[in-house]
Specification:
The complex is a heterodimer of chains A (224) and B (297). With 224 residues, chain A is mainly alpha-helical. Helices cover 75% and strands 0% of the residues of chain A. Chain A has helices at 12-41, 46-60, 64-78, 88-116, 121-129, 134-149, 151-164, 176-186, 191-220. The chains are: A mainly alpha (224), B mainly alpha (297).
Chain lengths: 224, 297
């Protein structure tokens, strides 16, 4: 039943490795971009707050598929911005990561912002009484506590991101979903077996992440 | 305006804020200028790329509106099927019988762990001529709906479960005290209240569903809103303008739904009839962190 795996025709592990790479690069990027956005959304400068709010509301309500396709058709094919990639494979991968970061950053930002709200006002007041500036209050007092409070929501964002990397298939990045599509077309007699293989792959990717980060979240939570 | 992080600005802070605003405007302006000049260089700012959306009504009547209708149809149908299914699964997860609880739990966790795109691809292969032979013109539509239903009924099951668990214990106790059976307690007391508490979360789930329909257009050939970009830009060779207009349509529809959800949440929180328990759009906790309900593709 699973003999299509032995034929050597399909590189299932390779495809999942691309999925993992997409996830890791996008996760790192969206953590940085999301933190910057959250900083803007809580900053004392009204203009920055406005930009952060507008960005989050616009991007959150746009389908990720549109962002990724926009990167490919708009940025790469129309404007010739290829992010320094040489081959088709490299360009597609980088564009997909860019789209995923733009989208996932908004969810990281919102998670962090809710974490910032869990920090008691008294702490920031005490910090200000010591003469710390906004930037110092944010980076030394508030964000470290906020991050510990939002590990569980961020784990959910990471899991959603792992699943969302499949959208890269729409611009031809050779990751798991694209290989699954190809295999479903070629192995029409083994539809259930093909699905089982890929479903198992994703369960193996997302379940340990959730359990591990859930455990970490409990360990590091600030007891109030 | 005060916040955890900063005081109401005094004269000095106000001056500093103006400087930061100035720096931001300059940087933002530079990025915009770079982007616009790049677009101008590639001929994307010429008027004839953008005017069709205002002057040529055929863009709307042949492409955008039919696409939007397909998107809304798939989204609404998926929601209508996924809601009762999700409610049943959610109740199943709360069952007193371990075998029901366990098997429903496994079903729900499984379908939340799989990307919705893979569920759509699988359904599409399932409906192919060799297996079930759904007519080829409606196959993409049904594949998209099936994928969305499988995934979202699992997510809704979690929302329903959280909704029932958010109700005060006294509700069940009171129902037991007047002699109600388990089923009666669930269907006459808990579910009606849970549904009101869940409404905002369910409305915002509709946004996730609408966004996910775009996957069907890109990989299955479902004629939804996003897939129209190919035909429009083939006719008018205006890729960027088309993508911007399509994005705006999505944003308007989804922003409307999000606003409606948060207004509903506010009204429910204020209303005296409910128990006061309202599940907001971001408050669904997972015992085993699975999918973030709001972060679908």
């Amino acid at each position: 039943m699973f003999d299509f795996l032995d034929s050597g025709q399909y590189d299932v592990l390779g495809a999942f490795w691309v999925t993992v790479q997409l996830t890791l690069y996008s996760a790192a990027g969206s953590l940085i971009w999301g933190t910057a956005l959250a900083g803007m959304r809580v900053s004392p400068v009204p203009l920055l707050r406005g930009f952060g709010t507008a960005y989050v509301n616009l991007v959150r309500n746009t389908p990720l598929t549109l962002l990724v396709i926009g990167c490919s058709l708009g940025l790469s094919q129309t404007l010739k911005i290829n992010l320094g990639g040489d081959s088709f494979k490299e360009i597609g991968f980088r564009l997909a990561v860019l789209g995923l970061i733009a989208y996932t950053g908004t969810f990281v930002c919102e998670a962090l912002r809710s974490g910032i709200n869990t920090v008691p006002v008294g702490q920031a007041e005490a910090a200000r009484a010591l003469g710390l500036s906004f930037f110092q209050v944010l980076t030394l007092i508030v964000l470290p506590q906020a991050f510990r409070a939002v590990i569980a929501p961020l784990a959910n964002v990471l899991i959603a991101l792992t699943k969302n990397t499949t959208v890269a298939a729409t611009i031809g990045v050779a990751e798991a979903a694209l290989l699954m599509k190809e295999m479903l077309e070629n192995e029409a007699q083994a539809v259930f077996a093909v699905f089982a293989v890929f479903a198992l792959g994703f369960v193996l990717l997302t379940l340990p992440t959730g359990l591990l980060l859930g455990w970490v979240a409990k360990r590091v939570a600030v007891k109030r | 305006m005060t916040s955890v992080l900063y005081d109401a600005p005094g004269p000095k802070a106000k001056a500093r804020n103006w400087i930061y605003s100035g720096i931001f405007i300059v940087l933002f302006g530079l990025v915009m200028w770079w982007a616009l000049s790049l677009m101008a260089e590639n001929g994307q700012l010429e008027a004839d790329k953008w005017t069709p959306f205002v002057t040529d009504s055929r863009v709307w009547t042949t492409y955008l509106i039919p696409g939007l209708i397909e998107t809304l149809k798939a989204g609404a149908l998926s929601m209508v099927i996924a809601l009762p299914l999700g409610a049943l699964l959610g109740i199943g997860r709360l069952s007193d019988h371990a075998w029901v609880r366990g098997s429903v739990g496994a079903w729900v966790e499984f379908f939340r762990a799989i990307p919705v795109l893979m569920l759509m691809l699988f359904s599409s292969a399932l409906y192919a001529p060799q297996l079930m032979d759904v007519p080829s013109d409606t196959r993409p539509f049904w594949a998209v709906v099936t994928g969305l239903v499988l995934y979202n009924s699992a997510v809704i099951a979690e929302i329903v479960r959280a909704g029932v668990l958010s109700l005060p214990r006294g509700q069940t106790d009171a129902a037991k005290a007047i002699g109600m059976r388990k089923g009666q307690t669930m269907f006459h007391v808990l579910i009606p209240q849970a549904v009101t508490a869940m409404l905002p979360a369910l409305v915002s789930q509709l946004v996730v569903i609408l966004k996910d329909t775009a996957l069907g257009g890109a990989l299955l050939g479902f004629a939804e809103l996003l897939s129209m970009n190919r035909q429009i830009s083939a006719n008018y060779s205006n890729t960027i303008a088309t993508l911007v207009v399509i994005a705006l349509i999505y944003i308007v529809v989804n922003f409307g739904l999000t606003t409606f959800a948060s207004q509903l949440e506010g009204r429910l929180r204020k209303s005296k009839k409910s128990t006061g328990a309202v599940l907001g759009t971001d408050e669904i906790d997972d015992p085993i962190p699975g999918a973030n309900t709001a972060a679908g593709a």
